[in-house]
Amino acid sequence: MTDDDVDFSDIPPITDEQWARSVRGRFYRPATEDVTRRVIVRLDAS
Q1: 3-state class (DSSP) for residue 16
Q2: C-alpha span between 32 and 26 (Å, rounded)
């Protein structure tokens, strides 16, 4: 399907007022990655 095949006629146009209230990146969440660290505890008997 190409962009020419999509029917956009039922979508209302965006007004200048709507553009003025828009916020860039509002729903963006950066990808998270799991971090694993190994902790080695050494207890020396005194």
Answers
A1: helix
A2: 17
**Amino acid 46: pLDDT:** 61
Cα–Cα nearest to 22, from 32, 30, 14 = 14
Distances (CA, A) of 8 to 20, 30, 31, 43: 23, 30, 31, 69
Please state the pTM of the whole predicted model: 0.40
Token code pair at residue 12: 């209302």
22 half-sphere exposure, CB direction, 13 A CA radius: 9
For 3-31, the pLDDT digits (tens) are 899 999 999 999 999 999 999 999 988 88
**DSSP single-letter state for residue 12:** P
Amino acid at 25: G
